[in-house]
Amino acid sequence: MKIFNYPSPEAEKRVQDTIDRGLGFSREDQDNVQAFLDDVKKRGDEALIEYTNKFDSPAVTLDTFKVTEQEFEDALEQMTPQFLKALDRAVEQLTAFHSRQRENSWMDTPRNGVMVGQMVRPVAAAGIYAPGAKGGKTPLVSSVLMGGIPAKVAGVKSISLMTPPMADGKINPHLLAAARAVGIDSVFKAGSAWAIGALAYGTSQVPKVDVIVGPGNIYVALAKKIVSGTVGIDMIAGPSEILIIADETADPECIAADLLSQAEHDLLASAVLVTDSQALAQKVSAAIEPQLNALPRKDIAGQAINAFGAILVVPDIDTAIDLSNRLAPEHLEIMVESPFDYLDRIQNAGAVFLGPYTPEPMGDYIAGPNHVLPTAGTARFSSALSVSHFTKKTSLIHYSKAAFEKEADDVITLAQTEALDAHANSVSIRRK
Ligand SMILES: NC(=O)c1ccc[n+]([C@@H]2O[C@H](COP(=O)([O-])OP(=O)(O)OC[C@H]3O[C@@H](n4cnc5c(N)ncnc54)[C@H](O)[C@@H]3O)[C@@H](O)[C@H]2O)c1
Ligand SMILES: N[C@H](CO)Cc1c[nH]c[nH+]1
Ligand SMILES: [Zn+2]
């Protein structure tokens, strides 16, 4: 893995390439995704089946497109006690974390005779996307929990899950067990942009939803971007990223492993180490190659590391933090002697992992917080998938006659300033 001294023009170019890579949708990608969406809007299930047959499985038909109760039962029978134990722990810890995000409705009486408040309501229907690369054989089972649990905690009644099928037209049984564990009964065998189109516009089999959440590849991300506004979306959760800030006390083998953990997600994944120790930089660089060669998915991780991986040697940890705030990484690991001392200075990051025993995968699967996180610098203004993505707030206002009289003149003055006479009239008419 390449080592750069930072600051330097060469290091700056690598940093800029990393920033630019994440949301780099080409005109051609956009046109293709728009065409998929338009077609699903026009032809509904027929288009969905056609694209699913072409890209993922020729075995899916209109009759087998929705997962049946029998398929759920068959899947559950295949689960090992070991998997069910891990699943239970993940569900329990994620539910506990997301339950703390619940917001209550409130009503206040700030002035005599005036009541104002906010009513929190779940959306009626949500769509969840679970990525299913490699022909749906090894889908991100954990993404089902990350989407489904906050939706359930928010109180959403109708939840539809979309995921690409395997070549034989089936869905990975672990994914179905995870869906069942969080109470999702409607699972459809479709991936990519057409699955997002089906959720956004509805088809005869897929209910139209209010909100679509979940990570996915460039086609999923682009489709979500295009339909946002027609429906709510969580964010553009693009290719995975990890940035590690480490000093000479950190273990180089662990750092190499953590960098590779995110590089294996995608050819466009980014894995960056920022350290003030030249010695650590050399050791991590040397540790990458053997660990990479031992990975079954070494092609993806290797290409990602080559294209966007970097070890940046900085003068001090303060410079490392400034750089991290600029990159606003999806995942930030702080592997320095006293990691909590630096937390106050972290401004932009999707999730922060503190200390030597908090590798990023603890957060991917089990710790409790959501693993659907902003990428490509968007952690500057957006946050992890949460219960709030499945709720909306309605403002409440009430005036008594006396309170109305007291404030009416001010409203008339402000309305007249905007030359909105009908507004002023709606107030003055009540004084007669
Ligand atoms: N930011 C986050 O929180 C987060 C979380 C988890 C995963 N991720 C990212 O999500 C992504 C998952 O992507 P994935 O590929 O594994 O699964 P995916 O389900 O998003 O993509 C597979 C689908 O894309 C379709 N596809 C393939 N080629 C196509 C083409 N040319 N045109 C249209 N559709 C095509 C496939 O047929 C399949 O349906 C990765 O980039 C990973 O890093 C991000
Ligand atoms: N690290 C991914 C988010 O970037 C989430 C994930 C799912 N499974 C494993 N990892
Ligand atoms: Zn991961």
From TrEMBL:
<feature type="active site" description="Proton acceptor">
    <location>
        <position position="331"/>
    </location>
</feature>
<dbReference type="InterPro" id="IPR012131">
    <property type="entry name" value="Hstdl_DH"/>
</dbReference>
<keyword id="KW-0520">NAD</keyword>
<feature type="binding site">
    <location>
        <position position="364"/>
    </location>
    <ligand>
        <name>substrate</name>
    </ligand>
</feature>
<comment type="pathway">
    <text>Amino-acid biosynthesis; L-histidine biosynthesis; L-histidine from 5-phospho-alpha-D-ribose 1-diphosphate: step 9/9.</text>
</comment>
<dbReference type="GO" id="GO:0004399">
    <property type="term" value="F:histidinol dehydrogenase activity"/>
</dbReference>
<keyword id="KW-0560">Oxidoreductase</keyword>
<keyword id="KW-0028">Amino-acid biosynthesis</keyword>
<feature type="binding site">
    <location>
        <position position="265"/>
    </location>
    <ligand>
        <name>substrate</name>
    </ligand>
</feature>
<feature type="binding site">
    <location>
        <position position="262"/>
    </location>
    <ligand>
        <name>substrate</name>
    </ligand>
</feature>
<dbReference type="InterPro" id="IPR022695">
    <property type="entry name" value="Histidinol_DH_monofunct"/>
</dbReference>
<feature type="binding site">
    <location>
        <position position="240"/>
    </location>
    <ligand>
        <name>substrate</name>
    </ligand>
</feature>
<comment type="similarity">
    <text>Belongs to the histidinol dehydrogenase family.</text>
</comment>
<feature type="binding site">
    <location>
        <position position="265"/>
    </location>
    <ligand>
        <name>Zn(2+)</name>
    </ligand>
</feature>
<dbReference type="Pfam" id="PF00815">
    <property type="entry name" value="Histidinol_dh"/>
</dbReference>
<dbReference type="GO" id="GO:0000105">
    <property type="term" value="P:L-histidine biosynthetic process"/>
</dbReference>
<dbReference type="InterPro" id="IPR001692">
    <property type="entry name" value="Histidinol_DH_CS"/>
</dbReference>
<feature type="binding site">
    <location>
        <position position="423"/>
    </location>
    <ligand>
        <name>Zn(2+)</name>
    </ligand>
</feature>
<dbReference type="InterPro" id="IPR016161">
    <property type="entry name" value="Ald_DH/histidinol_DH"/>
</dbReference>
<feature type="binding site">
    <location>
        <position position="262"/>
    </location>
    <ligand>
        <name>Zn(2+)</name>
    </ligand>
</feature>
<keyword id="KW-0368">Histidine biosynthesis</keyword>
<keyword id="KW-0479">Metal-binding</keyword>
<feature type="active site" description="Proton acceptor">
    <location>
        <position position="330"/>
    </location>
</feature>
<feature type="binding site">
    <location>
        <position position="423"/>
    </location>
    <ligand>
        <name>substrate</name>
    </ligand>
</feature>
<dbReference type="GO" id="GO:0005829">
    <property type="term" value="C:cytosol"/>
</dbReference>
<dbReference type="GO" id="GO:0008270">
    <property type="term" value="F:zinc ion binding"/>
</dbReference>
<protein>
    <recommendedName>
        <fullName>Histidinol dehydrogenase</fullName>
        <ecNumber>1.1.1.23</ecNumber>
    </recommendedName>
</protein>
<feature type="binding site">
    <location>
        <position position="331"/>
    </location>
    <ligand>
        <name>substrate</name>
    </ligand>
</feature>
<feature type="binding site">
    <location>
        <position position="418"/>
    </location>
    <ligand>
        <name>substrate</name>
    </ligand>
</feature>
<comment type="function">
    <text>Catalyzes the sequential NAD-dependent oxidations of L-histidinol to L-histidinaldehyde and then to L-histidine.</text>
</comment>
<dbReference type="GO" id="GO:0051287">
    <property type="term" value="F:NAD binding"/>
</dbReference>
<keyword id="KW-0862">Zinc</keyword>
<feature type="binding site">
    <location>
        <position position="364"/>
    </location>
    <ligand>
        <name>Zn(2+)</name>
    </ligand>
</feature>
